[in-house]
Amino acid sequence: MASNRPAPEAPFVPGQRGGDTFGYGDHRTGEGPFQEWNPTEESIRPVRGRHRVTKQRGGLARSSTVLGVGVIAAVGAGGMASAQTGKPPVSISMPDLPNVGALISGEETPEGSATPLSNVGMTSVDTAEGAADAGEALRARIMAQAERQQEQVESKAAAEAAAAAEKAAQEAAEKAQKEAEAKAAAAKKKAEEEARKKAEAERLAELAKQYTLPTSSYTITSTFGQAGAYWSSGYHTGLDFAAPTGTLIKAVHSGTITSAGWDGSYGYKTVLTLDDGTEIWYAHQSSISVSVGQKVNTGDVIGRVGATGNVTGAHLHMEVHPDGSANGVDPLAWLRGKGLTP
Description:
It is an enzyme of class 3 (hydrolase). GO terms for molecular function: hydrolase activity. Residues 235-325 form the M23ase beta-sheet core domain. Residues 1-60, 101-121 are annotated as: Disordered. The chain is of the alpha+beta class. The protein has four domains: 1-50, no CATH class; 54-132, no CATH class; 155-210; 219-337, Glucose Permease (Domain IIA) (Distorted Sandwich). The protein is 36% helix and 17% strand. The chain is built from six helices and eleven strands. The protein has helices at 41-44, 62-85, 100-105, 124-129, 134-210, 331-337, and strands at 20-23, 26-29, 219-222, 239-242, 248-250, 255-262, 268-274, 279-288, 295-296, 301-305, 315-321. The strands form two sheets. Strands 3, 4, 5, 6, 7, 8, 9, 10 and 11 form a nine-stranded antiparallel sheet that branches. It has a two-stranded antiparallel ribbon with strand order 1-2. Strand 6 (255-262) and strand 7 (268-274) form a beta hairpin. The longest helix has 77 residues, at 134-210. The protein is rod-shaped and about 190 Å long. It starts with 19 loop residues before the first strand and ends in a 5-residue tail after the last helix.
């Protein structure tokens, strides 16, 4: 701060006015006399390069005072910015500044007499953690935030992986359960089928005790439904057992003789009606051993193999007519259904 050159003092004349000074119309002793001083351009020109404030030992002058005030303002603004942006306060270290009043008055101020600015803007957390500057604190916060985000991502990924694993395990368990159920169902079905076959075999075995083949020492020569000119209908209506003439003919099951005698192209024929109404026809016999109304049991002899009627050789022609129907069924299938294997 510049100042004017000191005004020259008026010359002192001893003994003038008896040592009295004037004031408000009278003289006062011990103050005077004075000369009238008119300031000139030369007398009021500022002295360049000279200041009233003496230089401090810390190398600070008026510019230091301005710098200190600017630093205080900057620190205050930095604190406000930190509060607004959420960033940690900046630690600033400055040399201790003298009292501003002392700088203006030009008096020497002892070092350290003013309040130091070295801890302005510092928080207790920053001081405890030993943060050196705002950049280090910001880096630490960014790294901490990045670590938290990474932990969140890893936790989410782990949760998704666990959910996927649980879903896969559940799907695998459901698939295994379905496969087990399918295998169990297949095994059950197979067991049921085997049980049914076994039961059928037992039934047929029991029936086989009740049924028997019509003759023995035979050869199957013609089957049911076989086409040919030998039969008036155009196809074969029964099953032929070729055997030597005189071979015994047996009752396949217990029943009653309902017909016995000559029947045209059938030759000598016997009809056995079973208890369920099924008729068994025996044709081309050489002889008949039973009479109408006779009761017979399984295996009883009812006649002998011959070659009577429309034949080309000795054989037994057998037909099966359920419930006495005109059209017969396959005797081979019927016999197998009774547990017999022709």
